[in-house]
Amino acid sequence: MKIIMLGAPGAGKGTQAKKIAEKYQIPHVSTGDIFRSNIKEGTQLGRKAKEYMDQGALVPDELTIGMLMDRIQQEDCKNGYVLDGFPRTIPQAESLQKAITEMGQKIDFAINVDVPDENIISRMSGRRACISCGATYHIVYNPSKVAGICDVCGSELVLRDDDKPETVKKRLAVYHDQTRPLIDYYKEAGVLVNVDGTQELNKVFSDITDILGA
Ligand code: AP5
Ligand code: ZN
To answer: Which reaction does it catalyse (predicted)?
Structure first.
């Protein structure tokens, strides 16, 4: 099964993508996570990406598209994947379409996790991310068992650099301008499904599994 997650920053794409990956045994491919791990490792790609990410801007397509194409051609993606944070621009969607058509594949679902802007800022300011494994929590809606400590690996939880309110506002503006048009793109392709992302996170997930099937 090949799935794309659509939605504003903080809509819950990553949270749901992880649950989908676990239930359907497919890799969770997050371009944001790949960039963050490159930043942590100090690679050249990471250094370039950080300049854009810290400002709430998109990393240029030239850097992003090739990276994602390499990832989905790896062996573990043969039977499917859930893409989280890609595509984010029409050129990215077109490149993906071309590549998967050449591979004789197709996208099964583009899941739009719908959350209005008003809810986003409070979600982002309460989000905490693990400095080691990248697991994410929310101080109110999805707390770790011990405050400030990752359930998965025991490392420290921090506010992401780009989750400061000013940067979140910029990311939302970029989303409306460049990424939202993908909703119509996938509607026309006949694979778009909408879920109400304002619900409690397990309810959002059960709506998604109703669509994807057992
Ligand atoms: P990326 O990491 O993809 O960030 P994003 O799209 O802005 O999404 P987020 O990770 O912020 O949010 P999410 O929707 O995954 O929400 P989450 O599940 O964490 O990208 C970061 C940057 O990298 C971009 O700004 C860009 O610079 C660059 N980049 C990445 N991909 C790119 C691309 N393709 N092209 C160009 N540049 C790219 O949930 C948010 C919070 O809410 C959490 O605390 C969570 O616990 C909580 N929560 C989740 N669901 C619920 C719920 N139902 N109810 C209450 N709280 C909830
Ligand atoms: Zn961790």
So the answer is: AMP + ATP = 2 ADP
Question: Could you tell me the residue range of the domain that residue 193 belongs to?
Answer: 2-117+169-212
Nearest CA to ligand 1 atom 50: 12
Specify if 129 maps to a domain: no
User: 195 labelled as ligand-binding?
Assistant: no
Domain containing 106 — which CATH number? 3.40.50.300
pLDDT digits (tens, 9 = 90+) for 79-112: 999 999 999 999 999 999 999 999 899 999 999 9
User: Which residues are CB-neighbours of 158 under 8 A, at least 6 positions away?
Assistant: 128, 129, 131
Ligand whose nearest atom lies closest to the CA of 157: 2
Tell me which residue of 36, 153, 150 sits closest to 84, measured CA to CA.
Answer: 36
Whole-angstrom distance, CA of residue 160 vs CA of residue 166: 13
Which residue reads 């996208």 in tokens?
Answer: 107
The pLDDT assigned to 18 comes to 96
User: Any known ligand binding at 49?
Assistant: no
